[in-house]
Fold these 2 entries.
Entry 1:
Amino acid sequence: MTTHKELSEYELSLLNDPEKRASLKTKDRMAIPPQEMPHQNSVERRNNLEEVAIGYTLEQARIEAMRCLQCAKPKCIDDCPVNINIPAFIKQIAENNLPAAAEILKETTLLPAICGRVCPQESQCQKNCTVGKALKDVDKSVAIGRLERFVADWERTSNLAAVPKIKPETGKKVAVIGSGPAGLVVAADVRREGHSVTIFEAFHKLGGVMRYGIPEFRLPNDIVDKEIDMLKQMGVEFRTNFIIGKTRKLQDLIEKDGYEAVFVGTGAGLPVFMNIEGENLVGVFSANEYLTRANLMRAFDKTKADTPIYESETVAVLGGGNVAMDAARMAVRLGAKKVYVIYRRTEKEMPARAEEVQHAKEEGIEFRFLENAKRIIGDENKRVKAIECLRYELGEPDESGRRRPVKIENSEFILDVDTVIVAIGNNSNPLIKQSTPQIETTRWGNIVVDNNQKTSMDRVFAGGDIVLGAATVILAMGEGKKAAESINKLLAS
Amino acid sequence: MNKILFKQKLSDNVYLMRIHNPLICNERKAGQFIILQLDDDFGERIPLTIADADEKEGSITLIFQVVGKTTDELSRLNEGDKIANLAGPLGSPTHIEKFGRVVCVGGGIGVAPLHPIVQAMKKAGNEVITILGARNKDLIILEKEMAAYSDKQIICTDDGSYGLKALVTQPLKELCEENPKPDLVIAIGPPIMMKFCSETTRPYKVKTLVSLNTIMVDGTGMCGGCRVNIGNEVKFVCVDGPEFDGHLVDFDNMIARLNSYKKIEQKSHKCNLDKYLEQKK
């Protein structure tokens, strides 16, 4: 474990003297150095699944909170997909009033401990923070995500999280398909109105991508468990090993089982491959498979788990998003001696959270920018032995505004690797579509919804990655919130 | 839910179990499979094809051979015990219609998934010929059950201890040479058997379906571990299959992928038989 810097006398005086705090001017606040997040040592953490970012101490959190200027027109609120009242909860931290801070968070977000950890803050709430702008460095913005996490962790570890009030039972039933972030939010918000809620989950464990995808070193299972326990205490029912579309058809839930509304939050579960030569060799995995084995199936625990995981010395991870970072860092923890991340643009265009990229570098992962896989080469046993890549340069911006990568002819070169993990995205899972032909989908299989998350089917709503394509936990939550409002409105009439 | 209602040892290491699960029982169709896991935390998820279902009892029948840790543990469970996790029915059902003359080839434990297909094909009005093959007489399973839905049944054993002393490809070839030749062949068994059945029928241009049993984790399309080359396309066995045109399947790649973890599994669970064989070398 790393230790953080001792607090200065000045900082200590700020903590202890309310008057001094009250008299802080903008320039005083700007002069407070950003508080560093304590981290698990980068050598030790290569061998364990413990969380990398350890979390602020109370003192650190309060000092960091004092950096917030309490802007009259806070950009951070607009930039947050669920519009958390950020300056208000931060102010309460500075004043050491954590229960009030927790209350404010709860007004808008159900999963602060999770979002504080996995949201891409630098492209959301912290992107246009006045402090960061003034200091000309987004990394020096107020650490909103870390503060959110701090409050949520404090509340959880002090066992203060209270079960939300449930309105009198209405006797109406709502089905939620998928127990990922979108589904959990819908379940909570609909249950609060007094409707009975059943969540159907295909896997044997709950949490969706937060369980099978995001590794424990970034989001510990305990935190996901705690959120799910809270829903159980609220009276939400869970059915695991229950695959809507297979175990029971979606329309049967409405026509035969008496559900008055259904929310589809099945996620983006169909891995995309590169479509290159050698992709079906032994030793080529989708990031989904690699991470699911390690996380959900506990293959990291090689002595206890029955599910095997490939033994790798040298790994190439293809892609530049959070999933690529997770897979690369998991490969390190599973004993790979060398891990490359191969991305066809530059670091600037990478969609991964800045902090994950930073952590990956500290853990010894080698980033190879402006390169892309051309084919995978196997040995006589059809096992991966190398990957042939091409070099790229950046051309004109494309529709996404990012500069388009253009391959450089005749720039092929070969990297010796024994494992390739493909992390270039997911298409929508086909199970609901296959078994529910009447639901309207895009040509990529995403479910089409209106502004209220309503699908083309009566009483059926959808949200999260099955609508958005592969996105983030917070965007899924935002959609879940909207869907819950629509469901509650439908059932009120 | 998931309680074992009945258990029977069919041969040395082959077991039949009827498991209570009315949901899967009601939805399942011929050709579909389930995923089973015995320990919530550390168990592995394995796919097993549904061999039969009893709507009155609300049960599905699984027939499995002990080949690894999970199937070994499963074989040690008894009537009244519960299976921790059972999910399904998965995969696309077999396309059933009246084709005419349908030859169903089952090798070893592959007879189990073939059983509901034979039933459905017969009920659809087909002339059904079954070929059952195994190493020896003891390993032939469901002989009577299959005969009940077969117009003709041929049994082959490698050692000649029962029926013809032949591989299943021999009577299959003879049937292909008959007039009329089969309208459809369905072959289910070890990958190598399905490969050679497909090779046998290829020159006669007889459509041949095989049911693939690849490595899977989730069984719902999410991991892609089950992907196979079908002609020029990559398909997922769990959502696009498990049945494919045998003439298009890249069996060599599939067999290599099935052995992905062999090195690791041998290292950690070196079984006595392996040691014995090594000593003999």
Entry 2:
Amino acid sequence: MSDAAIAVRPVRAAPRGGGLTGLLLVFLPVGLLAWLILYPILRAVIRTLVVQTGTGPALSLETYRFFFTDGYSLANLWLTLWVTALCAVLLLAVCLPIALYLRFAKSRIAALVQGLALFPMFVPSVILAYALIRTLGPNGAVDLVLNAAGLPKIASPYLTPAGPVIGLVWDNIPLTVLMLVAGLGNVSDNAVEAARDAGARPFALLRHIILPQIGNALLVVLSFTVLSIFSAFTLPYVLGPASPEMMGPFMQRTFTDVQDPRMAITQAVITFAICAGFGAFYVRSIARNREASR
Amino acid sequence: MATLSLSAIGKSFGGADVIPGLDLDIAEGELVCLLGPSGSGKSTLLRMAGGFEMPDRGTVRIGGADVTRMPPEKRPTAMVFQSHALWSHMSVAGNIAFGLKLRRLPRAEIRSRVEAVLELVGLAGYGARKVWQLSGGQQQRVAIARALVLEPQILLLDEPFASLDQHLRERMREELRDIQQRLGITTLFVTHGQDEALALADRIVVLKDGRIEQADAPDVLYRAPATRFVAGFIGTMNFLACDIRRGRADHPLFAVPLALPDGPAELAIRPEALRLTPDAEGPVRVRRVTDYGSHVLADLETDDGERLKAHCPPEARPAPGQRMRLSARQLSAYQQGRRAEASPAHLREGALHA
């Protein structure tokens, strides 16, 4: 074959249908996502908005109007928001020092601290709830010790808003610590040493160098914590007060005890909408992370 | 400006002595390079001077004051890191002004000092930029500016140009030398680049296994290395094993008279001290020739399989396989790893022919 023949040979085009193969590959997971998540959400929203009347289905905001005018429902929502916000603050207050210690400590004790911090990850929520009842509940271990020492009993957090707060903070420590340690991994030793070299003492170092550099990690932690705590059920159900109650137990009770599924679904949609807001916040944080790492 | 004095300083990690015990005094305004292979302890020494590592023994004195137990934030030192260690969430000016803000200086003074130091490192007008918008060389200049703006008594540099390309590295080290001389700041510089150390330093300290092998001016270190390690570490050196018998080396190429005790020794010759002359009966054969532009490096082999390297001018490029005669303009001898005080008389007068 001559050189000329080689030169005029057409370049073979990329096989068609590459895009279709890609779509087929993602079809199954996307289909499952649509069937198991998107469809129930859509169906739930429609069920709360559409009522059957004598003349057929009609659009109605009746359940939402009831929720936002009912003092008890609002008290439950506020309690849930309050517990979530308090837990988020407490988790950061507890976990940030632990994460800072794990990131910068060079002693062997760090491994022990890490083991302790991650321990709650391996304890199921229901076991944790009953352990807390046996420890902090009326006539629990703490009371027995205080009694033996001749001291008055503690005001038990069991069945008060403080109960789920303690349980949820304990339960969320491992994930929060792990996410913070991962975020702190982006702060190089040299960046810290350079700040110390410039004269920064520990507090200035934390405020001016470390916190700004883990800003995105903090946002991710906050989003995850809020999502996890806002939709919690087991710990608020077992440890929390009967009234007001957090949204998880409230939904369950409306559905089974009050037997008002439409109202329970409305509560779920409102809870979902608030969580979706934090979810959007989380996605935005991730997008910013990626943008910053380019 | 101040002196830096490290006395009997030592550091161990996990029970292993990284620096067993070392003395080093640096005069006011002097630029000293710490040079050595990886693991020789040069960065540990620098970090102890900066307060980032606490010595297990010995003292660190700056301007006569004992700062051994003083943390970095209180020492009159400033460090430039290999990775630049700039804070990406701050602007160029923010990075430089950080230390000044911590010292609660008036805003106007901070601004004027930042502008002055940016001017000094050739980055005037770059203050508002984010550090990630700068090139590697510009980032390194910001790191130097950040260190200089604090007017430290001692400037510490930990392989600051290691991440830069060759041309930029050469330009940066000239600029650094210029700034250092203008400010007269006492400087300790860690590098494992010999060319960098030779070009920059007033004095080079060669470290091996946490011990000082030699501390001398660059020309002394290159031309009269005190130990076999330094001779081999700085530049390229041909070592020829031989025995000294009755005041004469028994090497077949260079049977030179040496006033040394009988015993094993090594003759050391720099490639540029060798001259090649084509000779069909010559004792060496050219194996390979590498052209470096300014000179040609000939890889030679004796009939006994001993290898040597020699520099030739490009116009006298030998051909591979060609046999050559050798002559040496300068030669030294090492016994038991130390430079022997031997000076073959006839080498002073002319070349030694082989």
